[in-house]
Amino acid sequence: MNIINIIGIFVLAIGAGGCASDSLPSQEGESSPRPKYDVPPQTIYRIDDHRSIVLEDYDKCYGDGYFVDAKANIRTKLWRGNFTNYAGRLIVDDSDEMNIVVPSAANSYCGDRGCNVPLLYSTDGGRTFKAMNYMQSYRPSKASENYSILVAKDGFYVVKTTEYGKGKIDNAVTKYPLAPGIEYGTVTGLPKGYHIEYLSNKPLPPLRTPSGQERFTCDASIRPSNLPKEK
Asked: What does DSSP say about strands 51-59 and 74-81: parallel, antiparallel, or unpaired?
């Protein structure tokens, strides 16, 4: 699936929720082309010594995101937005280096109905990505603070943590299988033998990103010198 297909899925996902996300692949909305910002690429999430998520052409951490695998010579565009709007944890620990998940979370109010919040997932080492919704919220960025997404060899876990009393924590855990050919949100559903599991309050596997990083980071002080002049 190419980036055009991904854009289409994102538009459908957001349209169903009734709100626009600032994590869409393209939402410039500019009447005239702006100059490409003269900023150096910024690594905002590092998986290991050769795989990372990199931000380019950005201002105040809003820009084009890419998945990069220097060893496999992969550079795949994800979307244009502010990745740090996702304020939860992200752990990528697939020793086969095939499964990758990149979440989003709009920093906006979606109304009382809330909006569907998507993530991108890859089962081919980051060469291609597909989209699916993992959360519905009227304030996605704030809600994402209570989420953890853990990527393993056979799928990924979406963990929603809720404190329902002093010192009492509930973890609602959903495991989504990942394998070549799996595509969420289709009429045919998952291939035979695969199913979504609900594992609330069951022990999770001891997953860890090789780099140790668990959250997106970005230096918002890096600003372009060629910003358009204010009128």
From this structure: unpaired
CB-based burial label for 100 (10 Å; 0-12, 13-18, 19+): buried
List residues bridging with 43 in a β-sheet: 54
Report the percentage of the chain scoring pLDDT > 70.
83
Rounded Cα gap, residues 120 and 104, in angstroms: 8
Residue with tokens 């070549």: 180
Show the tokens assigned to 222: 């890096």
- pLDDT tens for each residue of 54-102: 999 999 999 999 999 999 999 999 999 999 999 999 999 999 999 999 9
Q: How is residue 128 written in tokens?
A: 């291609």
Residue among 101, 105, 68 nearest 84 (CA): 105
- What is the rounded CA–CA span in Å between residue 42 and residue 135? 27
Backbone angles phi, psi at 10, to 5 degrees: -60, -45
Residue 6 three-state SS? helix
145, 117 contact by CB (below 8 A): no
CB–CB of 174/199 below 8 Å? yes
**The pair of three-digit structure tokens given for residue 7, joined into one six-digit string:** 């854009």
If one counts every other C-beta atom within 10 angstroms of the C-beta of residue 151, the result is: 23
What SS3 class is residue 142?
helix
Pair of tokens at residue 145 = 């603070």
In this prediction the pTM is 0.83
Which is nearest to 53 in space by CA: 12, 86, 26? 86
Local structure of 57: helix, strand or coil:
strand
CB neighbours of residue 62 within 10 Å: 19
